[in-house]
Amino acid sequence: MQATANKLQETMGTLPTEVSPTYLPADEIDPKTGKKQIKTMKALVWVGSKDVRVVDDAPVPTITEPDDVILKVTGTTICGSDLHLYHGEIMALQEGDILGHEFMGKVHEVGPNVQGLHIGQRVVASFQVACGDCKYCKQKLSSFCDNTNKSSLQNYMYGQRDAGFFGYSHFTGGFPGGQAEYVRVPKGEVNLLPIPDNISDEQALYLSDVLPTSYHSVVDTGVEKGDIVGIWGLGPIGQCAARWAQLKGASRVIGIDRIPERLAMAEQAGIETINFDQHKDVVKRILELVPQGLDVGLDCGTFHEPKAWLHKVEKALMLETDVPETINEMIVAARKMGRCGIIAAYAGFANHVNIGALMEKGIRLIGNGQAPVHKYWREILNDYIIPGKFDPRFMITHRVPLEDMGRLYGAFDKRTDGVEKVFVQTQFSDSPGEKCPALTRVKDWA
Length: 446
Ligand SMILES: NC(=O)c1ccc[n+]([C@@H]2O[C@H](COP(=O)([O-])OP(=O)(O)OC[C@H]3O[C@@H](n4cnc5c(N)ncnc54)[C@H](O)[C@@H]3O)[C@@H](O)[C@H]2O)c1
Ligand SMILES: [Zn+2]
Ligand SMILES: [Zn+2]
Hints:
The chain is α/β, with parallel strands linked by helices. It has two domains: 2-209 and 372-444, Medium-chain alcohol dehydrogenases, catalytic domain (Quinone Oxidoreductase, Chain A, domain 1); 211-367, Rossmann fold (3-Layer(aba) Sandwich), CATH 3.40.50.720. The protein is built from 15 helices and 21 strands. It has helices at residues 2-12, 80-86, 135-138, 152-158, 188-191, 201-204, 210-221, 236-247, 260-268, 282-289, 309-316, 325-333, 355-360, 373-385, 405-414, and strands at 24-25, 27-29, 36-38, 40-48, 51-59, 61-62, 69-76, 103-110, 122-125, 128-129, 164-165, 182-185, 192-194, 228-232, 252-257, 272-275, 294-299, 334-342, 364-367, 396-401, 421-425. The strands form seven sheets. A six-stranded parallel beta sheet has the order 16-15-14-17-18-19, sandwiched between helices. The longest helix is centred in the C-terminal third of the chain and has 13 residues, at 373-385. The chain is globular, with a radius of gyration of 21 Å. The protein starts with a helix and ends in a 21-residue tail after the last strand. The relative contact order is 0.14.
């Protein structure tokens, strides 16, 4: 799939963008020879399906365009979306691509146009590279920016294209990502949010993606006071969405997953759970619990884990790329005129969608899109994190060094050792903050 997509993209040519994904490498003087050489860093690169590695010779970026900021990364992580890359399910990945779209750090260098940020300032990056000026950016719908993704392939498949994303293949612009010691952030003043001193890195990092994404799923699908909400998938996105739904006044929240630690984490917060290994017919179980059907369903799962043999076969034969089982369960388990939101990432085509039930029941099926981080990150920081109404540290189960990132992909994919969300430290990180796990090595996980 990668070779075909890359070939197609090459044949179609790229679309014009306001920012270039390729960066200039920084130099340094070799202390032994006194000669200039390219400065290198550790970074996680994609090599092939289920093959990602930490290299130590990736070039450190320097200012390439006048609005750039170069960050020294103090915190990064892995996201459920990275697993789609790991499985090679997102198009146009190339060997050597630096991955990672959720990261924060200290400003290391600024371009000549950057006025509002200073060297050493602590900032978190949005997972999207937005231009700040187009009609979507003016409404803070940063993930839908028109000007930063050169992928003609995405434009052809979807009619328009999303913003460029950090570390997420050439289908989303080919920008090197943040599972690295340094990152170049194009349009730095647009795509970085300053963090106050009294907020730790572990509290701030997830403003990059998980927090705005889960918040968006709840707000955009429209959870209202008194609603009964079903959440498919209790990874970090589902766990946070469940808590946002409670904060927005949901009367009951029901989480569906099969990983015991994830079900237990939800139950601790007063979320009812359904283990889909025990209840093979999830819809039947939901309708036992809520006979009138759910007011709202949120898909926070993943399209690469089919349950039924039919979808396993169709997916293996490439008769479909994505699996619609959760979408069908949501449609049938929702009440008439209920709302169902899809925040889980899908990439291509699915068979056997229950379009009859969707139409006849008047279900409002909402594609939430990639989350517009800029619309929410200030609100989440100021109204929830700073006053202590939402503490993202509840989901951090592990802390590991960047060196372990290659191994971490496999462990996160298998959900080893009860892993939920991870804080990945670099040589520039502070020691673990209050209420956060100590450093472990992935090879020691049970
Ligand atoms: N739209 C966005 O902006 C955005 C941003 C970040 C993540 N995402 C997506 O959100 C999803 C969740 O992310 P995450 O980090 O929590 O991922 P994750 O992989 O850690 O969690 C996914 C969970 O879904 C569960 N699951 C799998 N199949 C299921 C099924 N049939 N029914 C119920 N649960 C099922 C898994 O057991 C797992 O616990 C992913 O698809 C990710 O790509 C979207
Ligand atoms: Zn993500
Ligand atoms: Zn824009």
